[in-house]
Amino acid sequence: MTETDPAKPQHLTTEYAAQFGDEEVAAAYRHRPPYPAETFAILEPLLGLHPRCVLELGAGSGDFTVGLVPRVDHLIAVEPSRSMLERAVHRDGAVGAHVEWLAIAAEDYAFDRRYSAVVAAEAFHWLDWHAVLPRIADSLVPGGHLILVERTLVEPLPWEPDLRVLIREYSSNQDYVPYDTVTELEARGLITVSGRAQTKAMSYRQPVDSYVESFHSRNGFSRARMQAGRAQEFDDKLKALLCRYCPDDTVRLAVQARIVWGRPVAM
Known about the structure:
CATH architecture of the domain at 10-153 and 178-201 and 255-264: 3-Layer(aba) Sandwich
Oligomer: single chain
Order of helices and strands: HHHEHEHEEHEHHEEHHE
Helix content: 25-40%
Number of strands: 8
CATH superfamily of the domain at 10-153 and 178-201 and 255-264: Vaccinia Virus protein VP39
Radius of gyration: 19 Å
Structural class: alpha/beta
Number of helices: 10
Largest sheet: 8 strands, mixed
């Protein structure tokens, strides 16, 4: 890499991406909030003309896939983690005659069709950008989009400062620094952004135990990679913290999705 084309942030290297192959991470994924329904209303006109052949990279356990399935004519969902894939193919709404699930990394996928859109929801930051972006550019139809989607909280939670301290203490990914995928891509001259949108806030409630367990679906918190006893220590401290803010044992979140679309820059 040159100075104008720097390496990815250290916390996004393959060493950390591999954690999403852990059974423990896949098992905890169901505790993440769903994508707001409005996400797919925004997505609809971005998927191109029918017949729509759409490629989803890093489909995970199908959280986003279930919203794509009824909106496309053919969907190829690529996911390297067999633990994630096993859960995805057993979800209502994530399968169908027009859905093709492939247990393969995006970097190893053939990109052997023409796609009206290529979509990645909370996954593109883990990919080898220089390996996949030129192939996406070559395989998109004229006017087709690369669409990146992220779930996020509308505003910081009241316990956020103390939570950040806990995460820094217990995460096995000590290289983490705050980042934004699209900003990183634009800074390297890898994509041209055509548009941005975000959904309205969606209210989501879940038990404290489920909220705590959701952290073990995150990078740095795979139970398999935390030192003995550390996962339980983290859980206990986070539950004690939440007792001060959630007296009814319920966490209330305001969730939104952010959607960015554009095209890879020719290399």
